[in-house]
Amino acid sequence: MQSYVWRFSQLSLALFLLSLPLVIYWAVQLRFGTAYVEEWLPYDAPSRVDYRDYRQRFGSDQYLLISWRGSSLDDPRLERMADKLRELAGQRSDLQIEAVEDSRRSVDVLAAALRLETDEAVRRLSGVTVGEDGTALIAVRLGLAAVSEPSKLVEIVQRMARETEIPADDLVLAGEAFQIHMIDRSSRES
């Protein structure tokens, strides 16, 4: 019985060692990155067709939201950061930045369009583009291609925040691009 166990363990070890190069090869071929759910579906699947139609009619639904502790409509860093991002959108088409909006601009546009006082425009946008506590944000609308490699954009935003005197510990990022960045980073680190 011992010789059978010995032979079986030796055979198992030999098979493992022989298959190890193949396992290593496939492990090296793995791509880090998060695929979109719609890419799991056949190209002509009704839900994927509907989603393509939605994107053609209404544009991207991918956003990177940027805020920080202490941000407000009167914070001069809000406009500086938004302007830097608009400039970046014009310079770096590879980042697929489709639009950059900020809370201050949203308030001004609504107030002008409906001839409202600023306070009334802020009240109407409370909980939408202005936090209920008066917090302001910047919304960066991204093309679908941008979210396939979000780390570039997230790293640029973090650098711009430092340049705009927004402390790294105060910076708050949200949205699918940031989530994918964090998942990819955690995958690489693990």
Characterize the structure shown.
Helix 4 (103-114) packs across helix 5 (118-125). 55% of the residues lie in helices and 12% in strands. It starts with a helix and ends with a helix. A 4-stranded antiparallel β-sheet has the order 2-3-1-4. The protein is α+β, with helices and mostly antiparallel strands and 190 residues long. The mean pLDDT is 85.
Give the oligomer, counting copies of the same chain as homo and different chains as hetero: single chain
Using only C-alpha atoms, the radius of gyration works out to: 24 Å
Give the H and E element order: HHEHEHHEHEH
* Count of separate DSSP helical elements: 7
Tertiary shape: elongated
Task: State the strand order across the main sheet.
Answer: 2-3-1-4
Highlighted features:
4 strands, alpha+beta, about 190 residues, 7 helices, 4-stranded antiparallel sheet, elongated
List the helices and strands and how they pair.
Elements: H1 2-29, H2 46-58, E1 62-68, H3 76-91, E2 97-102, H4 103-114, H5 118-125, E3 138-142, H6 150-163, E4 171-174, H7 176-189
Antiparallel strand pairs: 1-3, 1-4, 2-3
Helix pairs in contact: 4-5
Write a brief structural summary.
55% of the residues lie in helices and 12% in strands. The chain has seven helices and four strands; from the N terminus they run H-H-E-H-E-H-H-E-H-E-H.
